[in-house]
Amino acid sequence: QAQFVESGGDLVQPGGFLKLSCAASGFTFSGSSISWVRQAPGKGLEWVSEHSSGGIEYYADSVKGRFRLFRDNAKGTLELEMTHLKPEDTAVYYCVKGSRFIATRQTRGQGTQVTVSS
Question: How far apart (Å, rounded) are the C-alpha atoms in residues 11 and 27?
Fold first, then answer.
């Protein structure tokens, strides 16, 4: 069964930078698409980005140009580098197994809290 441990969340000022990390286990990481999703306070899950099994990266319009993925198949990790952070990026961030088409329906771990505030 796929398991994920997310880390790296923090309180950061608008315009700031954070790098989140996701460590995966329990499945063949290199052969899987992995996505990040987030849930802002009082809102539903939102897909953020996907690193496909074929190595293609996809980003939601709300984060395109500001967020970037880094994948290490040997370590089973997927990092999300976030720059120019905005208050609307405040959310709990989760990584899940699967593409952008199914990510919000996948089983999630405990997530990591990102708060963007001055």
Answer: 32
Cβ–Cβ under 8 Å, residues 69 and 77: no
Q: Which two tokens stand for residue 85?
A: 């952070």
Residue 52's contacts (CB-CB under 8 Å, 6 or more residues apart) are 33, 58, 99
| Confidence check: pLDDT of 1 > 90 | no
Residue 105 to residues 13, 81, 99, 112: CA-CA distances in angstroms? 31, 23, 10, 18
pLDDT at residue 52 in the model: 96
Q: What tens digit of pLDDT does each residue of 35-86 get?
A: 999 999 999 999 999 999 999 999 999 999 999 999 999 999 999 999 999 9
Burial class (CB in 10 A: 0-12, 13-18, 19+), 9: middle
Q: How far apart are CA 62 and CA 54, in angstroms?
A: 23
